[in-house]
Amino acid sequence: MWKTVAKHLLSRAAEARTADPAVVQSLREKVGASKLGRSLAIRHVSAGSCNACELELRATQNLVHDLTQYGLSFTPSPRHADILLVTGVSGKNMREALLQARAAMPEPALVVAVGDCAVDGGVFKGSPAICGGAGGVLPVDLMIAGCPPSPERIVLGLLALVEANGAPARAAMPRREPR
Amino acid sequence: MILLSHEDWKARQGRFIALWTDARHAYALYEPGELVAVELVDNAYPALTHAGAGWFQRLAYDLNGHKAIGATDTRPAIEHSRDAEGRGPWPEFKTPEIEGVHQVAVGPIHAGIIEPGHFRFSVVGEKVLKLEARLGYTHKGTLGMIRGKSPRLAARFAARVSGDATVAHSIAYARAAEVALRLEVPGRAVYLRAVMAELERLANHTSDIGAIAGDAGFAFLDSRFALARERICAASAAAFGHRLMMDVVIPGGVAGDIGTGGAVAILDALDALEAELPSLKRVFEDYASLQDRVVGTGIVPPALAAAYAAGGYAGRASGQTHDARLLPGYPPYETFALYVPVERDGDVAARIRIRLAEIPESIRLIRDMLHSLPDTPIAIAPPTGSGGGLGVAESFRGPVWYWLRIEGGVIADVFIADPSTLHWPLLEHAAATAILADFPLINKSINGSYSGVDL
Lengths: 179, 455
Prior knowledge:
heterodimer; A: alpha/beta; Rossmann fold; five-stranded parallel beta sheet; 6 helices; 32% helix; B: alpha+beta; Cytochrome-c3 Hydrogenase, chain B; 2 domains; four-stranded mixed beta sheet; three-stranded antiparallel beta sheet; 16 helices; 42% helix; globular; 4Fe-4S (chain A); iron-sulfur (chain A); NADH_UbQ_OxRdtase-like_20kDa (chain A)
């Protein structure tokens, strides 16, 4: 029994992740506060990715990274979304669909570019088939770089946006490592 | 490469893999790696009648303007005819002329966290009569970006053709460049590449099996398999510095040796997966509500899979025995007596069972390889040479082929054939045997790459 108890005590992870205060501060100056609360719904659009960013985006929802514990969730409809999360280059063939997804969202809304391609086109910068990154089509509020960014980095980036934009957090519940 | 007359080109039999064109020739690739060519006349070549040739011929026209004379399918592949604002006309989607039929349009933006593509279903009630996929949304001009770059620089594009198969694409690309430049890769690099390729297979098999179960409303399997994938990715990062092992495989070898503690991290992740796999497998096999969704759903008959030379689990679940690791074969697999599972049911369940059977085999391969890593350098610098070459690697979804022509140390021409190109038509067939609600399961069970075909 003691062995099991000890295992459970040791397997308890540190506190839930918190955003970097410096990033939060600079985001607050840039994006400013909106009437959105802390529980935000995300509509993901791949505008021309290689699917690596989608893999890591899906991994933010797994038992280890558990994005949902912070009140952030993915929604299938832009009508229900507070955040438009764009991955991949903005391919010319996706420009129209990306603009339509943004137009379908209620205001206020935030736009997050995830991955080097969405930040500025990444390795595909200069290709005639693309309009650059997400910024080539839409105004972007937050960029999360990386090729692809790790799930942890995506979570921290989104948390910083929540902190900068919304009311202060209540104390987070301690997290348990999945067994 | 064999240059054929127009008659011989058309009459050529065999398992067709890919077709592409350059300035002077059209090329066709057959298993297990036979390359034939025909000269272009007035920017045209005779169309091939192989089932899988359609998409390639459409792509060749969109990319290079080369016409396939006699082709029955001339729909655009990646060319959407869009204006500067990105607006373009919708193509006409033909519907079977049956009473009560209507169309359901899905995409390019899908409900989940996946790539973009448009699906047009013709349905009567719930029953799908026809599916037409319109792809090309993730077209990034990859082939054009590769041309004019050095082999080492262009490796970054090969690694981003399809992110879930980045290792396999990088290996196939590197092998093509190594054939072109007559490079002998050191043994340690060969082993490390294979370790990475098998890790990639495990990461994709676990997350996809879980995702299919998740689509059937079975969240338990989804979260357990997602955790298995997470452990593999974390171990890959510890060993190779990147969770998906992107940019680690380069022409001439690998970019870095396995990190300190990397092998232990990998072996631990494998142990955890191996320990849990039997119980997860039992859940998959025992729950009637889950089996009810996957058995008999989205059937690809063996004859159809053979016509499209389907590879990977999509082919092996439908009686196709081909695996590029065995035929044409490449090192180091000849040392490890590879076992390739094959079934004939061709439904979603069979594709899952194939992937479940491939997991222990990949675990065994990785363990054996890590225990017998040769003690050699990890890379040699590619010389500034000229030449042409084909390269192949078996990705988790089937063989990936690269064709390269290098002139004076710079890539003059390139073509990339992802197995998805041959699998998308299979999805169109399989979807038309089921109801609309089963489409997500069927789609995920075949899991074609959008980016891999839009190039």
